[in-house]
UniProtKB/TrEMBL annotation:
Family listed: Belongs to the argininosuccinate synthase family. Type 1 subfamily.
CDD domains to which the protein is assigned, alphabetical: ASS (cd01999)
Lineage: Bacteria, Bacillati, Bacillota, Erysipelotrichia, Erysipelotrichales
Organism: Breznakia pachnodae
Binding-site positions, L-citrulline: 90, 126, 130, 179, 188, 265, 277
Record key words, sorted: Amino-acid biosynthesis, Arginine biosynthesis, ATP-binding, Cytoplasm, Ligase, Nucleotide-binding
EC numbers, comma separated: 6.3.4.5
Enzyme class: ligase
UniProt protein name: Argininosuccinate synthase
Subunit structure: Homotetramer.
Length: 405
């Protein structure tokens, strides 16, 4: 072990992993000073009592970083504008939060003159990459400690035994030991029975942000969202900051069974992983934004942006937020979002979201041109010449094939 490490900044969530790490670090690194840092990205009551717990288990200081507004406005909304998604369904809830927390850890480490930063990510997961790439972006020489790669605790059950042995309080037990990640955007559930894809999720036991579609109201709920340059700014006519708006959408979405997915994803490190994700407000925002873009973006831009959405999602999922490519793509997205203004009315009903009306001062939809009737803007006779030119390669190929027969 590196005995010269005298001060460590620990990414502290109060969950199982980081709860035992303060004690473990002191035992294995010659009793260094431990500074616990928690980034508040909307974990709500999960943050209750963290300072007391961290100090009681050996930390010398505790920092609570309120990152919620910055998280929503500078990380979530840029991804929303890009329609960023991973493997068609995952709205990147866990991945969203890692860059901003990683940057916060570096800020405290530099302020405190720490020798190392420690995180509680496993050696099988994506978060180890996300945190460490963020740290490298702002403190490239900083030592990083990842106990899961080296310690003698080989499972979450081992960690629980270690905590019990050292009188470290936990909020979980062996029976409810799902691995969870919560923030203002989503809640994820992994582990236990979910590790077998044959098992149907026990939704009644695990859902916290809402209900299943079966338990949602038997009547639809209508909401209206307003956007300015691709960013949601109002709900049902009421202007709101991003955080407030998202919380309101989480509530109405959860009540209507919106945003529950069960997926097997391909982790960055190469393995497949199964999880259940709750993203009620985010699912609503993505749908509304997509609908608004359908009338405000021209065809080529809209189609190219679909490619960008996939790449943007991969960049974020893989922890490459602080890179020139992500910044360049964000600049492109900002430009294409200049005309994404207007309102979208949505119908929420038992887990589904459907359009109930779209309007924009920048709409490209022309009822006159799209009509099946006659109009002064489109001469249907022009289509014959267009088809002849567009189909010329097909005609030439057919003529060539005919000569060979």
């Amino acid at each position: 072990m590196k005995k010269e490490i005298k001060k460590i900044v620990l990414a502290y969530s109060g969950g199982l992993d980081t709860s035992v790490m303060i004690t473990w670090l002191k035992e294995n690194y010659n009793n260094p000073e431990i500074i616990a840092v928690s980034g508040d990205v909307g974990q709500a009551d999960e943050l209750d009592g963290l300072e007391e717990k961290a100090l009681n288990t050996g930390a010398s200081k505790f920092y609570a970083l309120d990152l919620k507004d910055e998280f929503v406005e500078d990380y979530i909304f840029p991804c929303l504008k890009a329609n960023a998604v991973y493997e068609n369904v995952y709205l990147l809830g866990t991945a969203f939060a890692r860059p901003i927390i990683g940057k916060g850890l570096v800020d405290i480490a530099l302020k405190e003159g720490a020798d190392a930063i420690c995180h509680g990510c496993t050696g099988k997961g994506n978060d180890q990459v996300r945190f460490e790439l963020a740290i490298k972006a702002f403190a490239p020489e900083m030592q990083i400690i990842a106990p899961w790669r080296t310690w003698e605790l080989k499972s979450r059950e081992d960690e629980i035994e270690y905590a019990e042995k050292h009188n470290i309080p936990l909020k979980i037990n062996r029976e409810t030991n799902y691995s969870k990640d919560k923030n203002i955007w989503h809640l994820s559930h992994e582990g236990l029975d979910l590790e077998d894809p044959m098992n149907e999720p026990k939704y009644d036991d695990i859902l916290e942000m809402g209900v299943t579609p079966e338990k949602a109201p038997d009547v639809p709920t209508y909401i209206t969202l307003e956007f300015e340059k691709g960013i949601p700014v109002a709900l049902d006519g009421k202007k709101m900051k991003g955080q407030e708006l998202l919380l309101a959408l989480n509530k109405v979405g959860g009540e209507n069974g919106i945003g529950i997915i069960d997926m097997v994803e391909n982790r960055l490190v190469g393995m497949k992983s199964r999880g259940v994700y709750e993203t009620p407000g985010g699912t609503i925002l993505y749908k509304a934004h997509e609908l608004l873009e359908s009338i405000t973006l021209d065809k080529e831009t809209q189609h190219f942006k679909q490619h960008v959405a996939i790449k943007f999602g991969e960049i974020l999922y893989n922890g490459l937020w602080f890179t020139p490519l992500r910044e360049s793509l964000s600049a492109f997205v900002d430009k294409t979002s200049e005309t994404v203004n207007g309102s979208v009315k949505l119908k929420l009903y038992k887990g589904t979201i459907s359009s109930a009306g779209i309007s924009s001062p920048d709409t490209l939809y022309s009822e006159q041109i799209a009509s099946f009737g006659e109009d002064d803007s489109y001469d249907q006779n022009d289509s014959a010449g267009f088809i002849n030119l567009f189909g010329l390669p097909i005609k030439v190929k057919a003529m060539s094939d005919a000569k060979k027969k």
